[in-house]
Structure formats: structure tokens, C-alpha cells
Predict the structure.
Amino acid sequence: MLAEAHVVLDFQRYLLAKRTVDDRAMNGCVWEAFTAWLGARPGQGQAELLEIGAGVGTMLERLVARGVLARGAYTAVDADPGNTLRARERLGLWAGARGAIVREEGPRQQRIIGEHMDVQASFVTGEALHFARLHAGRQAWDALLAHAFLDLVNLSRALAALKPLIRPAGVMYATLNFDGDTIFQPDVDAALEQPILAAYHRTMDERRVDGQPSGEARTGRHLFGELATAGYELIEAGASDWVVVPRHGAYPADEAYFLRFIVSTVVQAVSGQVDVPQESLEQWANVRMQQIERCELIYIAHQLDVLARAP
């Protein structure tokens, strides 16, 4: 029986559980290039940043906690109203725990005021490309952030749609773009696992939203050419692999939940594929879930970070 892999897992808990995984993964050179650009960006006034697919607000918390965004405005867009609500709730608790004052300034806005911070955060529920079409020619930001997002959409269409949202000489900071490699250790029977992972990657290439292609398994490597075609200038790039390894007999933070979610995601994506027998999928998932319970499973996903200047 594949009981545990069939459990409906909490996506918001997954987004929170992967924060520590993301913190380790994000490429330091690309991060430093982005923060350096923010500190020396063209123009005057406070930085205005836009994040698409913002989830529950962990990137905003990361920027403020590290002192990268001490003063400015941040607009967070996510298609899931539950994520938007959770982001607002979490931001208030997160800032309050650090001695800051969180002031409600409207139905979608909060202002974080502290000794060394003054950040206005706006939360918008909406699909990213629809948001882009609504705001093209009407509003633009200094930087656009896409965290673990571009591999879920049609890359060429997304880059073209998002470009008008970035001010001239502004930047796109695109992180955790999947690039085709999923690794689980220790090894199991290759004849069992390889067809499952091949089918899993194929589901990314075949994903459709409203009848249109949406995402692919090798977004990371294709991003360079697509950025150039869309007129962006590469500033910095580097690997940002997810690597989850148990330490001293346990996983850090809530990363065991993160792993269970990943295994469950593979199962749900591959289930019903004609070249993967259900019995084989169940056998594989049960082995991997048991390894998580024993704190034995190691997981690696190859990804790339990119910082590019808009025309």
C-alpha cells in the first residue's frame, strides 16, 4: 500500500519547510550581485521590488532579515489567496518578533517600521502573467524577483510579458530554476527508479495550463538563450542546487516534511503514466518514504540562479 505517499500534504507547510533548503541553495555570487546592484542602482529614492509567485512571503523576510531591503516598497503577487493571506499574517508575526511595528495601511498593505527598517509591503492575489498584462505600461519596478517560478511557465512568453514591469536598466533576479536532474540516494534498483524519474521530468515538459505549454524540466539551461532573445543582459549566474542531507541522525528544521512532499509530488505526477507500472511506483515510494523515516534519504535537485539587466 502507498498510504503515506497518498496523504494530502499541506502546500503552505511545504513552502515554509523548504525555506532552510532554499537558504542553502541560493547561489551566493548571484545573491551578492543582486544586493550590490540594489545598493548602487540607477535613479533616486527607495527601492521598489516586485515578486511574482511570492508564496507565503519567505523571500521578503529573507531580504529584510539580511538587511538587503531596509527601506523601500515590496509588492508580492501570488495566484493563491491562501498564500497571500498567510504571507500577511506571517509578516506581522515575523516583524513583531524582531521588535518592529507592523502598521496596516490598507486592505492589501502593511508597513514594517523598526530601528533600521521602513518597508511597505503590498500583497496582491493574482496570476502572474495576468498581473503583468494589467500593469504593462502603467507601473514598473526597479527589480522583478521570480523565486522557483520560471520553470512553471512558458519561458519565452513569460519573459516577454514581464519585461514591461521592469524599469529601464532594472533587473530580473530569477532563482531556483530547475535544470533537469533529480537525485535520490542511497541508490535503489536503477531499473525501478530511472523510468520513474524520466516520467517525472517528462510531465514537466508536457504540462499544459489553459491548453498552453507551461514549464519544462530544463528551464535553467534554456533561460540564458531566452533572456538574450528577450533583450536582457546577463549580469551573474550560478548553480543553486537543493541538497538535503541528514545531520547527526536527523534532518534540519522541517526538512523531513519537505522530503515527504517531494516524494509525494513525484508519485502524483507519475501516477497513471503508461510506462510506469503502479506496482513499481508504489514500491519505489514506500522505499523512499521509509528512508525518510529512518533519516537516510539524501535528495539533490539541480537548479540555476540568474541575475539579468532589462533593456
About this structure: The chain has one domain: 4-309.
